[in-house]
UniProtKB/TrEMBL annotation:
It comes from Agromyces tardus. Belongs to the ABC transporter superfamily. Lipid exporter (TC 3.A.1.106) family. The chain crosses the membrane at residues 62-79, 99-117, 176-195, 201-218, 280-302, 308-329. Residues 1-45, 401-421 are annotated as: Disordered. Its main location: membrane. It comes from the Bacteria. Residues 1-21 have a biased composition (Basic and acidic residues). One of its GO terms (molecular function) is ATP hydrolysis activity. This is ABC transporter ATP-binding protein. Keywords: ATP-binding, Cell membrane, Membrane, Nucleotide-binding, Transmembrane, Transmembrane helix, Transport. The lineage of its organism: Bacteria, Bacillati, Actinomycetota, Actinomycetes, Micrococcales. SUPFAM superfamilies: ABC transporter transmembrane region, P-loop containing nucleoside triphosphate hydrolases. Pfam families: ABC_membrane, ABC_tran. It is found in: Cell membrane. CDD domains: ABC_6TM_LmrA_like (cd18551).
């Protein structure tokens, strides 16, 4: 149905009101982002320690064992100064040592064994935390709405899976769990020191209190700097991914040195943020050592005076000093834990930003009531219903524009951070209506940017219409399960992506149970038999990164074969034959003829030869349907189509 025809009276008044409301709002039209464009990654949300706990609790049994070992090790350590004091008293009295020395040696060996096993368990558990976080993140990434990938850089997302998740390991390997036993040691040493000499303890606590206050003040700076550093690492990964992915274009343009300099600038930015983290950490790490040295000097000086005055014995002073070292050691572990946890929380903020995003189907239950049905649900797939129907569809891409942190109207809670990115809408389709009968071959033609590829994306439900409805067999797509919907549709994208791997890997992507015989049959159906025969490996022949081992025409036909192997009743072909030579174009037409038999085919046509064989042609311009019919009808009635046909190029 063309948009020049009278719309059905049954169209809801609510839809018209919604359309009027949308048209009344000011519309921001942002330019499409070039794949070569850059924009700064905005700081992600700050993670809290409670968000870190689920990653740790997943390994609760092992952590309980580690905590128990830590407590046992702490008790063994606390007994050592007591035995040393006993040894000194026995030696001063001139009595035989007996088993005291052996008991002390046994305690040292037990402590060493516990420490070694504990270290192994923590390292293994740390790797487990990294693994589980990567699984969660990858699972989330591959379920995100397509719109999220329109505004996020691939390299930055990869960096979150690789670099940011690695930061979580430090939480376990740098003192957090060991702090449990450290707390026991700290409290036990504190009590023992209180019994031995309250005066010396008071002086020690004063020194330690200053150290703890300093660490607390610096810890937040570590978290913020670590988060910024990880964001910069993401920028580096995005720049490298962009440069490698376009390396041929960059070489051909003579831009290699410029790209190297650009990546180096990003790398230097990451280095500067890493140095900032190191600078702040360098202020925290020595604090434990300084506290220990100052405390030791105070205890040694004041303690010596108190021994001379007879307030305490030499044995008690030695025991007190040993307990002092035991108290300072867990304090150093605690300071290390604070640093590692804050660094991990900076990375976790970037991970959590992705994990908190809704899945593609998160709002499907809310959208289903908006679906407009044709008759009762059980009549939606009647044979006389069209395969595909667009009913007054409006659609606009959601684009993000980075806000300016210097903007006086910045509403960000933190004045040093930019407010969230501004969401803008780029209208693409404006009231598109047409029907595709079952078993017919329909061609979509029009100038570049007319909305042809967007129509296929809406059918695949990569996006939902802003207004209107897209129906499959009479049912609104929003009422259908996405998996079931996509099982009915084969989709060949415009650039015909080929995955690294073998021919078999690519063919069985959507049909994992297909046999080799079926794979070979479908390859020959699209004129790819020669590809099988030229390599002794057959279906196991590698295609290279992005299908570099295949020609452009072969990649396109392989993508068609992949869709055909799944045997879908509807095939969407975003055909791109404008750059093919005559032989490849003929093979492509033969492949299209082969796959269209007995199927509903919607093809975006770029060559007149492809269009003429279609049952019906739909002409689009600026997001609207301006004509429908056969080639002869459109040449006579639609000036734009006639112009495109005269040039033999339907862009």
């Amino acid at each position: 149905m063309s948009d020049t025809e009278t719309r059905p009276e049954t169209r809801s008044a609510a839809r018209a009101a919604e359309r009027a409301r949308r048209s009344a709002r000011p519309t921001f039209v942002a330019p499409r982002r070039s794949p070569f464009s850059r924009r700064e990654t905005p700081p992600g949300p700050r993670a809290t320690f409670s968000q870190l706990l689920p990653f740790l609790f997943e390994h609760r049994p092992v952590l309980i064992v580690v905590a128990a070992l830590s407590i046992v090790g702490a008790v063994a350590s606390l007994l050592q100064p007591l035995l040393v004091g006993q040894v000194i008293n026995v030696v001063e009295a001139g009595d035989p040592l007996g088993g005291l020395v052996w008991a002390l040696v046994a305690l040292v060996l037990v402590s060493a064994a516990i420490t070694g096993y504990q270290h192994y368990l923590l390292q293994r558990t740390g790797e487990g935390v990294v693994l589980s976080s990567r699984k969660q993140l990858v699972g989330k990434l591959l379920r995100l709405p397509i719109a999220e990938f329109d505004t996020r850089r691939t390299g930055d997302l990869v960096s979150r899976v690789g670099s940011d998740t690695t930061m979580l390991r430090a939480v376990l390997t740098q003192g957090l769990v060991e702090a449990v036993g450290g707390a026991v040691t700290f409290v036990g040493a504190l009590v023992a020191m209180l019994i031995l000499d309250p005066v010396l303890l008071g002086l020690t606590v004063l020194v330690i209190a200053v150290a703890i206050t300093t660490v607390t003040l610096l810890s937040r700076r570590v978290r913020d700097a670590s988060q910024a550093a990880q964001a910069k690492v993401g920028d580096v990964a995005a720049s490298v991914e962009r440069a490698i992915g376009s390396v041929r274009t960059i070489r051909a343009a003579g831009a290699t040195e410029r790209e190297i300099r650009d990546v180096e600038v990003e790398a230097e930015g990451a280095w500067q943020m890493g140095v900032k983290v190191a600078h702040i950490s360098a202020l925290i790490v020595p604090i434990a050592g300084i506290a220990m040295q100052v405390s030791f000097l105070v205890v040694l000086g004041v303690g010596g005076f108190r021994v001379a005055s007879g307030a305490i014995t030499v044995a008690n002073l030695v025991a007190f000093i040993l307990f002092l070292f035991m108290m300072i050691l867990p304090l150093g572990q605690a300071f290390g834990a604070v640093t590692s946890v804050n660094a991990a929380l900076g990375a976790l903020g970037r991970i959590q930003e992705i994990l908190d995003l809704p899945d593609e189907d998160a709002h499907d239950r809310e959208l289903a009531p908006l679906a407009v049905m044709v008759g009762p649900a059980n009549e939606g797939l009647l044979p006389d219903a069209p395969a595909i129907e667009f009913d007054d569809v409006h659609f606009a891409y959601a684009l993000t524009r980075p806000s300016d942190p210097a903007d006086p109207g910045n509403d960000s809670p933190d004045e040093h951070l930019p407010e969230p990115d501004v969401i803008e809408r780029q209208p693409v389709l404006r009231g598109v209506s047409f029907r595709v009968p079952r078993g017919q071959r329909i061609a979509l033609v029009g100038p570049s940017g007319a909305g042809k590829s967007t129509i296929l994306s809406l059918i695949e439900r990569f996006y939902d219409p802003s207004v209107g409805a897209v129906r499959l067999g009479g049912l609104d797509l929003r009422a259908l399960d996405r998996t079931e919907l996509r099982a009915q549709i084969g989709y060949v994208e415009q650039d015909a992506p080929v995955l690294a791997g073998s021919l078999r890997d690519n063919l069985k992507l959507g049909s994992p149970d297909a046999t080799d015989a079926e794979c070979e049959h479908v390859l020959r159906a699209v004129n790819l038999g020669a590809v099988l025969e030229r390599d002794p490996a057959g279906l196991s022949a590698p295609v290279g990164e992005d299908g570099i081992m295949l020609s452009g025409g072969e990649r396109q036909r392989l993508a068609i074969a992949r869709a055909l192997l799944a045997a879908p009743p509807i095939l969407l072909l975003d055909e791109s034959t404008s750059s093919l030579d005559g032989v490849n174009e003929r093979m492509m037409r033969e492949a299209i003829d082969a796959v269209s038999a007995g199927r509903t085919l919607i093809v975006i046509a770029h060559r007149l030869s492809t269009v003429i064989d279609s049952d019906r042609i739909i002409v689009l311009d600026q997001g609207q349907v301006i004509g429908e019919g056969t080639h002869a009808q459109l040449v006579a009635s639609v000036p734009l189509y006639r112009e495109l046909a005269e040039h033999q190029l339907l862009a």
